[in-house]
Design a protein that fits this description.
Layout: E1 5-6, E2 12-19, H1 31-34, H2 44-57, E3 62-68, H3 80-88, E4 92-101, E5 105-113, E6 119-124, E7 133-139, E8 146-152, H4 157-170, E9 176-182, H5 190-199, E10 201-202, E11 221-226, E12 230-236, E13 247-252, E14 260-261, E15 269-270, E16 273-274
Parallel strand pairs: 2-3, 8-9
Antiparallel strand pairs: 1-14, 2-13, 3-5, 4-5, 6-7, 7-8, 9-11, 10-11, 12-13, 15-16
Length: about 280
């Protein structure tokens, strides 16, 4: 059987970004204290929550995940990217582990897709406190290709600025580019605006408040896309699966962008390549 089968050019694809808090829902600020044990120990609700998330993400073509656990004690040694991909019917998935607390808790980025990338790269983001990264998924070659970067930026303003400057150097604005994830700040922040200007990006989700999930007041989860891409149907979803709400858009791909159906997953990503 052929590794890939060519797809007739999809006019539009649906993109979703979701910080899943390792499969733990939070409904009030005090739950960060009273439910803190859930960040280090397994519990039955986590699997139920993952099942609900997998049903939800099944309607999308590409999904960026943040705060996803790759198989520690708290997740019951379940790789959550793999679990969600399998149960959502997504043929391709990959994962980047950025922060490990012994074997108790792992945190990182994940990516699920109906299409097979040509390359996947891992980049460690700079910062005083280590444990942030970017997962770069590349489709096609040359200027007509599509790059999708999954990011989870730092809480601190100075570290975020440093990380965005790093991304400005590492990402290729000559290609069709999507940058999505938890930015921990609004799209109107000076550092994000400078990044968008440098990379010729626009922010169709800028007005969508996604945090906290139970009373969203801050728009900190974003999907940034190349200015040359048509983007619409920006939406935030009121689902109680995390302390963040997921955000989504639909983009129209240029005819020159060719995607191929995925037929197998990539299990892990290493710096400079994949395995």
């Amino acid at each position: 059987m052929s590794r890939q089968s060519e797809v007739s050019q999809p006019q539009k694809i649906r993109l979703l970004s979701f910080n899943i808090q390792a499969g733990t829902s939070t409904a009030r600020y005090h739950h960060y204290v009273t439910h803190s044990w859930r960040q280090v120990l397994p519990h039955s609700q986590r699997v139920e929550n993952l099942d609900a998330i997998s049903d939800f993400v099944a309607d999308f073509d590409m999904v960026a995940l943040q705060e996803v656990d790759s198989g520690s004690l708290r997740s019951g040694f379940i790789n959550q990217s793999k679990y969600l991909a399998t149960h959502a019917g997504m043929p391709f998935w990959c994962h980047q582990s950025n922060r490990k607390v012994g074997t108790v808790a792992y945190a990182g980025n994940g990516f699920l897709s109906r299409f097979r990338p040509d390359a996947v790269e891992e980049h460690r983001l700079p910062g005083v406190i280590p444990g942030r990264g970017t997962l770069l998924v590349r489709f096609g070659n040359g200027a007509e290709g599509l790059d999708v970067a999954v990011v989870h930026l730092a809480l601190g303003k100075r570290a975020r600025a440093q990380q965005l400057r790093f991304l400005s150097r590492e990402l290729d604005s000559s290609r069709n580019l999507v940058v999505m994830g938890d930015f921990n700040t609004g799209a109107d922040a000076k550092t994000v605006q400078q990044f968008c200007e440098a990379m010729a990006l626009k922010a169709p989700t800028a007005a969508l408040s996604s945090y906290p999930a139970w009373q969203p007041q801050r728009a900190i989860d974003h999907i940034l896309v190349s200015s040359k891409l048509e983007a619409d149907a920006a939406e935030v979803f009121d689902v109680a699966y995390s302390d963040h709400l997921p955000v989504a858009i639909e983009i129209k791909l240029p005819e020159a962008v060719e995607l191929s159906e995925a037929t197998r997953p990539v299990l892990a990503v290493e710096s400079g390549g994949w395995i």
